[in-house]
Amino acid sequence: MSKHVAVLMGGWSAEREVSLVSGASCANALREAGYQVTAIDVQRDAGALLTRLFPKPDAVFNALHGRFGEDGCIQGLLNILDVPYTHSGLMASALAMDKPMAKRMAAAAGVPVVEDRVVSRAELLEGDPIARPFVVKPPNEGSSVGIYFVMDGDSRDVIAERWPFGNEVMVEAYIPGRELTVSVMGGRPLAVTEIVTEREFYDYDAKYVDGGSHHVIPADIDAGTYDEALRLAGVAFKALGCRGVARADFRFDGENLYFLEINTQPGMTPTSLVPEQAAHVGISFSELCGWMVENAECDS
Questions:
Q1: Domains and CATH numbers, the chain
Q2: Model's pTM, two decimal places?
């Protein structure tokens, strides 16, 4: 009898729509691979979710993105239920979702990171927390939600006054250069992709609107930098205690690589970065999804 897999998607974060696309793609791929699949659009109702997860499936494919699905919350619930699930466990998920903490963990393992400070909205109103140019972002959102650039001459006050992500603001030095990303599958870095966009940066629309960006795989960089990006992604993956599949993002200024973050619940449509890199090394989308299910775990 084939394994029964519950695919969690949707949720109520800023990334709900992206999660629904990822979840539907993974559910279809798993059905094609011979799994029995139940797709669950997760709402903010723990009782309803528990009902949908009874009788317990053999595994959960977690296709949720953003807060509550990616930050350790749903992982904790699945740990209590003792149901194996894809991607990272509770601790790694919580650490990776907290961008400043993830950078500290990576830096402690020897991964170069971009300078940053976490300040209050009031502090941001008072003056520049670090030298310009800098980037303002929420400490715990994904998919480039809420990211602003503050260049010479830009107003910082407008951002602070309209900030909708709580009292904390992450301010990070702006590194001019190229956007590189590396998928890691079970501790194995797969490939390096350069993300090219005509937009100011790789924002939400660049990621998800048709034509917003294109991916160069393998990235057109020298072999030494390519190998170093692979190595650093593997180090960051291990330092945060990730498992399953994750994706590490870097800036490359032409000389040095700088780690930005690691995404423990990366996009999972057939044209997303992780599946593209898997295909580049000979792993089909259905094989990738099946591998994730077969390697699902819960925290003991």
A1: 4-86 (3.40.50.20), 95-112+177-264 (3.30.470.20), 116-173 (3.30.1490.20)
A2: 0.90
